[in-house]
Amino acid sequence: MPPGGTVACMLFTTHTAAGALLGFAAARPVDAAAAGLASHLLMDTVAHWGARSHRRFLTVAVFDDLAAAAVAVSLLRSCPADRRPAIAAGMVGAGLPDLDKPFRLFTGRRLFPGPVNRFLGGIQREDPTLFAREVTVAAGSAALVALLAASHRPEP
C-alpha cells in the first residue's frame, strides 16, 4: 500500500481523456505517446482520490476501466481516420504506468522493475476524501473529449 495507507487510484478515465486530448494536438503518434506518458506522471503528483481498501479500489476500478474503454472506443470510432493513430498513442502512453495494477492482480507479480515501482509509488498523492472531485474531473474530461471529437467529425 502506498504512503498514507491508501490504494493509489487516479481514475483511469481521466488519464485516458488526457491522453486523447494530447493525441489530438500531437503531430505524430510517438509524440502523442510521450506526451500521454508525461501527463500521467504529472497528474499522479496532483492530490487525487485513494481508496482506503483494496476491495473498494477494485470495485471502483472495474467501473472506471469500463468508462475509460467506452471513452476510447467512442472517440476512435468518431474521430477522423487520420487522427486515430496519434489519439490512440496518446491514450496508450497515458495509461502505460497503470498497467502494473491489472498485471499484478492477475499474475501476482509486478510488471515494472523495483526502481520504476518506487518512483511511481513515490509521486502519488492520495487522499480518501477526494472521491467526488475525482469522479467530477473524470466525467468532465470525458465530456471535453466528446465535444472535441464532435467538432472534428467530418461532414456527411
Detailed description of the structure:
With 156 residues, this protein is mainly α. It has one domain. Helices cover 67% and strands 3% of the residues. The chain has seven helices and two strands. A two-stranded antiparallel ribbon has the order 1-2. Helix 2 runs parallel beside helix 4 (84-95).
Structural class: mainly alpha
Percent of residues in β-strands? under 5%
Q: What coarse outline follows from CA principal-axis ratios?
A: globular
What's the Cα radius of gyration? Answer: 16 Å
User: Low-confidence parts, pLDDT < 50 over ≥5 residues?
Assistant: none
Annotation, overall tally of beta strands:
2
How are strands sequenced across the largest beta sheet?
1-2
What does the main sheet amount to? 2 strands, antiparallel
Helical stretch count? 7
Distance N terminus to C terminus? 51 Å
User: Topology as H/E string?
Assistant: EHHEHHHHH
Q: Residue-averaged pLDDT, rounded?
A: 88
Tally of separate domains: 1
Could you estimate the helical fraction of the residues in percent?
Answer: 55-70%
Short description:
By secondary structure, the protein is mostly helical. Helices cover 67% and strands 3% of the residues. The radius of gyration is 16 Å and the shape is globular.
Helix-strand layout with pairing:
Elements: E1 7-8, H1 12-25, H2 29-44, E2 50-51, H3 54-78, H4 84-95, H5 100-107, H6 114-122, H7 131-151
Antiparallel strand pairs: 1-2
